[in-house]
Fold this protein.
Amino acid sequence: MMTTRRQVLATAARLGVGAAGLGALVSRPRGSAGAGAPRTIDLEAREVRWELAPGKTVKAMAYNGQVPGPEIRAREGERLRVIVKNALAEPTTVHWHGVDVPNGMDGVPGVTQDPVQSGATFTYEFEARPAGTRWYHTHFDEHRQMDLGLAAPLIIEPHGKEPLAHDRELTVVLDDWATGTGRPVPSTDAGTAAGRGSAGGMMSGMRRGGSMGGMMGGRGMAGMMGGGNEPAYDVMTINGKAYPATQPLRVKAGEHVRLRIINASAEHTHVVRLAGHRLRVTHTDGNPLQAPVEVDALPIAPAERYDVVVVANRPGAWFLHCTQPGHVQAGERMLVVYENHAHATPPDPEPGIAGLTLWDYASGHGRPVLPAATGESRTSVMTLSGGMMGSDDWTINGKRYPDTDPITCRKGDRVRIALRNMSMEAHPMHLHGQSFRLLAANGTRYAEPLVKDVVDIEAHMGSAVIEFTAHNGGDWFFHCHKPMHMMGGMIALVRVK
Ligand code: C2O
Ligand code: CU
C-alpha cells in the first residue's frame, strides 16, 4: 500500500523520530507539484553545542539547530526555494546531492557560485527531481563542516505510485565524529560494495587507528598506507545520536517498515544489520530496483543511500547496528522494539559478517530510468591514486584538481567513465547534476545496471565503469566523497555544453 503524506507524518510522530523526522513538519510538500509559486524553506547554518550521547557534548555546525538538519520532503517536480542564512563565522554553501538542479544551484564554491559569506544569505531554487532518497550538505571545507554536522535528508516522493510497497518509514542518517573522547575506530576501506563477499573484502584495517608510534616519524604502517591527517573518528551516530541516546524504532508485528539509509560519514563504510531480520533492498541512491533483494547485511559507502524494507515478523526487541569492527562500541546501534515488547531484552549485537549474505553491486537489477542518449558516445579512463607514504595528495590520472583534465561533452552525449583504483583506500566517486548507470565493477558487467550517483571503487585495484547521458548543462564536479581525498585533489570537472 502507498504511504500518504499524512501517514508519513503520523508515523514520524509515532516512531518518535525526533529532530530529523520532525524537521519534515517545516517542509511539507504541497498537494500539487510544480504549479504556482515555489514553496519557501528557511535554513540557517550556525554553530551549536550538540549532545551525541550523555557526557559527549561537542561543538557542532547545524542546520536549524539540529543534527542531522531538518528533513526536507518534496513532491517530485515541486519547486523549492531554500533560503540559506549563513550564521557561521565562516563561509558555506549547500549542495543538493542526487538532485538534478540547474548548475547555478549546485553549491560548489568557485565553480557554480561564490561562497556564502558569514552573515549573508543565498537563495537556492530548483525543481525537486528525480524522486528518491536524496540529501543536502555543505560543500565548503567539507572536511570540517560536514564532519561537524552540516548534512540532512532530502526526500523526494514520486509523482506516481511508489513502486515498492511499505506501511511506514524512517530516515536513518549514519555519521562519524572525531571528538577526541574515545578510542579511534579502525578504518575499514577494503570493504566495498563490489567485493564484499570475498575473503579480503572486510579486513578490519590497521590503516590509521591501528599501529601508531612505529617507523615513519611515528606514524608507522598507518602513515605509509593512508592519508596522514585523517581525523580520528571515535563516535558513530544514527540520526545525530550515539547509543544509548539513539531513538528506538517502534514497530508492530506484520508491518513493512521502509528505512531510508544515508551514509553521511566522511570516511567510514557501514555495514548495517538488523538482528533477527533480513533487509529487502529496494533502492540504490534513491533509484528503485526492479525487485527487492533480500540480504542479511548492507554495506553502505560514504554518500551512498539505500532504501530497505524490513518485514516485522519476529516480535521482540532487536538492535539495528553496524557490523564493522568498533562501530557498535562507538555508538552505532539503535533499538527496534515491537509493540507489547517494551521490556524484552535485545540480544547483544554480533560482531562481524561471517555466514551473512551481504548486498553487493551485482545483487540488484536497476530500472532503465535515465534519459536516452541522442548525441555522441565518448569514453574516459580515470586512474585513481594517491595517499602514498602518508601523503594527503589524491590524484586522477596523476593530477590534482584543478589540474585534472575535464571531460567535455555536449547535451545528449553518452559519457562513459572507466575507473581504476591504484591506491590503498576505497574511493566513493560522486557525480553532480545527473545520475549514472553502473555498467560494471571489478571486471563483472551488469546486464541491468543499477542507477546511482555514487560508486565505491574498491581499494587495491578495484574498478568500475559508469555511463550517463549528459542531460544537464554546466560544469559539474565528479569527485571522491571522502572530504580529505577531495581536498587532496581527487576531483575532475564534467563540462556539459
Ligand atoms: Cu555529496 Cu560534491 O557531494
Ligand atoms: Cu577517495
User: Anything to note?
Assistant: The pocket of CU-O-CU linkage (ligand 1) is lined by residues 95, 97, 137, 139, 303, 430, 432, 477, 479, 481 (CB under 6 Å). The CA atoms of residues 418 and 465 lie 4 Å apart. Helices lie at 5-15, 19-22, 142-145, 215-218, 220-225, 483-487. The chain has a mean pLDDT of 87.
